[in-house]
Amino acid sequence: xxxxxxxxxxxxxxxxxxxxxxxxxxxxxxxxxxxxxxxxxxxxxxxxxxxxxxxxxxxxxxxxxxxxxxxxxxxxxxxxxxxxxxxxxxxxxxxxxxxxxxxxxxxxxxxxxxxxxxxxxxxxxxxxxxx
Amino acid sequence: xxxxxxxxxxxxxxxxxxxxxxxxxxxxxxxxxxxxxxxxxxxxxxxxxxxxxxxxxxxxxxxxxxxxxxxxxxxxxxxxxxxxxxxxxxxxxxxxxxxxxxxxxxxxxxxxxxxxxxxxxxxxxxxxxxxxxxxxxxxxxx
Lengths: 131, 142
Description:
The complex is a heterodimer of chains A (131) and B (142). With 131 residues, chain A is α+β, with helices and mostly antiparallel strands.
């Protein structure tokens, strides 16, 4: 009788575990077949006579929603941030940094920090440092 | 004849404890990490705990099997499960995974927390301990 109860309990937890782990499995699988599941494209344009605009366009192509999304991009001492409650497949958003044209000549160091909670369960933080 | 029965009974208990210890060991330190690894999550290296863990699990489970006192049996069994859980959590680096990728001209650091899975395994472990407790009470008093 106890063996049966143990088996039933284990099966319930196994089912719960499968449900809990499925967002990660799905995310990893999508990432493995399409490495461009999350991309950040950078472009530069002239803003005015004294400043240039650095544009960072982030695009998400995965099926698992990303909650509490936060993106911070920093170039030298200039930075830009954006936050979204939830981002879903096909969502596109951008962060702009305005820097003096004189500083733009030697933009070498770029730091980007991305934070989100995968499916509302798993916090993930990605830091990219371009040296 | 009676002596032979006692020896057979003893050997049966030792074998039961041995298989039970191996089962817990395989479940917590192989099957669960393997399933988690299959889902794409990273798992730690097992080698350093291998011999130590097998010896501990098997000897404790043989002791549980040979014990006559039902309360000591329950307590030691619960200890084995909590120990297995602790080893599993250590193996999974407390549910936090960090990796650094170096490439020409840049560094990427990824940190991921998968603590909900750890909590679920912990709840399951304590639920089985609770089941053992209920089993012990019903066996002792009913």
